[in-house]
Amino acid sequence: MNFAVLQFPASNCDQDAVHVLQNVLGHSARLLWHKETTLGDVDAVLVPGGFSYGDYLRTGAIARFSPVMQAVKQFADNGGHVLGICNGFQILCEAHLLPGALVRNRSLQFRCETIHLKTATTGSAFTNKIPADKVLRVPVAHGDGCYFADEETLIKLQANQQVLWQYCDASGALTDAANPNGSLLNIAGICNERGNVAGLMPHPERASESLLGSTDGRLIFESLIHALESKPAKAA
Amino acid sequence: MKAKIVITPKKAVLDPQGKSVQNALEHMGYIGVGAVHVGKYIEVELSGTDKEAAHKQIDDACHKILSNPVIEDYRFEIE
Questions:
Q1: Predicted local distance difference test score (pLDDT) of residue A231
Q2: What order of strands is seen across the sheet that includes strand B72-78?
Q3: Which of B16, B20, B65 is the closest to A61 by Cβ?
Q4: Taking CB atoms and an 8 Å cutoff, what residues of chain A touch B44?
Q5: What is the ipTM of this complex?
Q6: What's the gap in Å between the CA of A215 and the closest CA on chain B?
Q7: Mind listing the pLDDT tens digit for each residue in A56-68?
């Protein structure tokens, strides 16, 4: 598969994402500078973590208007798969490709630790390889990761099975203590209604090699790759 | 002309910064301190003299980029 990994000024997880896709999973991945207006021949887009445009104004607010994001929006509108990690999730929310927003952590602290994730639905393009009862261990590293959406949106997210991952304890229980940032419903990641765009605050690319302490993050990339390989025809 | 824009978090959104400032004010002994909300203040200098056109433009900018309507409210005046 061909992945495009976006690169904004102050992206800092772009190389990690390329490394995992290329060297760990054996797929093709190339960096795409934010000024590019076309994506070229890609099967999926990855919006990596970092502090795009210094996080000025709001996280993801300025990145949303960069030229490459217009191409990503069109790609997603045509059914192309897009995964946003951390700052990438924030950018996709600001771009209205995903509902809701990420606000300052409840604790006001930058949280950098390994957390546990429960997969709320294994039926999606981003979770199909994750065993239903498996608790994933994946790191988070963010200051603005508190997921917020209004009541109506939350109800819709749950009804449509758009909540993909939730913060939980080691046994899989969704507790307040296991929630690192105050996210509503312990939400760590969601997808859009169509199911082709997803975002999450934790970093699966930092949990894809046993040397780094966990390979659980690979399951997310492998799910996406499986979904892409099962796709009948390429998105235009 | 100058646009003076105030952006505040929506009431329903968790505002830990406001809560933290409120606690500090209380600890410092200020009497009768209620809820505190921390927002943003933005000034935009504008050329031209057409206030109505400026109003329209700034309203659009507030909606599209300067604020996020999911989590924030805004108000502004043109001087």
A1: 83
A2: B40-45, B2-9, B72-78
A3: B65
A4: none
A5: 0.87
A6: 33
A7: 999 999 999 999 9
